[in-house]
Amino acid sequence: MQLGIIGLGKMGGNMRTRLRAAGHDVVGYDTDPGLSDAADLADLVSRLAAPRAVWVMVPSGDPTRQTVAALGDLLSEGDVVVDGGNSRFSDDAEHAAMLAAHGVGYVDVGVSGGVWGAENGYALMVGGEDAHVERLMPIFDSLKPPGEYGFVHAGGVGAGHYAKMVHNGIEYGLMQAYAEGYELLAASEFVTDVPAVFKSWREGTVVRSWLLDLLDRALDEDPNLDRIAGYAPDSGEGRWTVEESIRLAVPTPAIAASLYARFASRQDDSPTMKAVAALRNQFGGHAVKNRETPA
């Protein structure tokens, strides 16, 4: 099958590689001329035979919105656009309506797999009309891991990105639990080989997972994580998951706590902890460590 891909970064470029290895004709465009097969979006569209399929892998928000709008002007009735980036699910209806005005279909795909996807395959969470999804199945089948799992047509437009949002919210909670366990083990006077404990958990335990495997890999490279600063950004999906949990009155305490922990990681000198220390001093006379006081 022929496919255009816009955005050839870490994931988009690897997806192009995986699809070409599977025998698909992939034409890629990127703002980096060294990565791009086409000079611009118009050139990309001109290289595709109708009915066309174009996969967008650019940052969410305005970059995606602008790319979808540009494609609406360039594509023809019967073509279809896939947004495989991390767009907020609520953007999908707007994108679909924008393209529908030109007779162009729209499919949203939440993609998981990161830099390992080229080798292992990508988990795909898809939203859109049945006919559009069915048409793209040769692409989905080549991108997903071999076997029964790794693909779902989750529902109509927006369902794919919604499923990916919840997936990433769960990921936040899992990572936080592993990280807290790491800190507790490292602080203990009983455990002398923390990396070996995590390695032992990779088989036969109920906490085994790919994230655990990746933490084991990180500890192999840096047993005390000395080379890594204790700062963790958030890419948006965690916030959106918590916002949805509030809207639907669904309790998600673990996911919410993991998001707030990332916020805390960005504070060199936490105002919250300053207030806590001041209160403890006021009501109980507990000592306060001043900035100039050695640790």
Task: Give an overview in words.
With 295 residues, the chain is α/β, with parallel strands linked by helices. The protein folds into 2 domains: 2-156, NAD(P)-binding Rossmann-like Domain (Rossmann fold, 3-Layer(aba) Sandwich); 165-270, N-(1-d-carboxylethyl)-l-norvaline Dehydrogenase, domain 2 (Orthogonal Bundle). It is built from 13 helices and 7 strands. It has helices spanning 10-21, 41-46, 62-74, 89-100, 117-120, 130-135, 137-143, 159-187, 194-200, 210-221, 237-247, 253-265, 271-284, and strands at residues 2-6, 25-29, 53-56, 80-83, 105-112, 123-127, 151-155. A 7-stranded mixed sheet has the order 2-1-3-4-5-6-7, sandwiched between helices. Strand 4 (80-83), helix 4 (89-100) and strand 5 (105-112) form a beta-alpha-beta unit. The chain is elongated and about 75 Å long. The mean pLDDT is 93.
In short, what is this structure?
Helix content is 49%, strand content 12%. The protein is an alpha/beta fold and 295 residues long. α3 links the parallel β3 and β4.
Offer a few descriptive terms.
single chain; 295 residues; alpha/beta; Rossmann fold; N-(1-d-carboxylethyl)-l-norvaline Dehydrogenase, domain 2; 2 domains; seven-stranded mixed β-sheet; 13 helices; 49% helix; elongated; NADP binding; Pgluconate_DH; phosphogluconate dehydrogenase (decarboxylating) activity
CATH superfamily membership of the largest domain: NAD(P)-binding Rossmann-like Domain
The total beta strand count reads 7
> pLDDT below 50 for ≥5 consecutive residues: which ranges?
none
Instruction: Examine the coordinates and then state which fold CATH places here, giving the name of the CATH topology of the largest domain.
Output: Rossmann fold
Structural class: alpha/beta
Helix content: 40-55%
Strand content: 5-15%
GO biological process, one term: D-gluconate metabolic process
InterPro entries: 6-PGluconate_DH-like_C_sf, 6DGDH_YqeC, 6PGD_dom2, 6PGDH_C, 6PGDH_NADP-bd, NAD(P)-bd_dom_sf, Pgluconate_DH
Domain 6-phosphogluconate dehydrogenase C-terminal: 160-287
Keywords: Gluconate utilization, Oxidoreductase
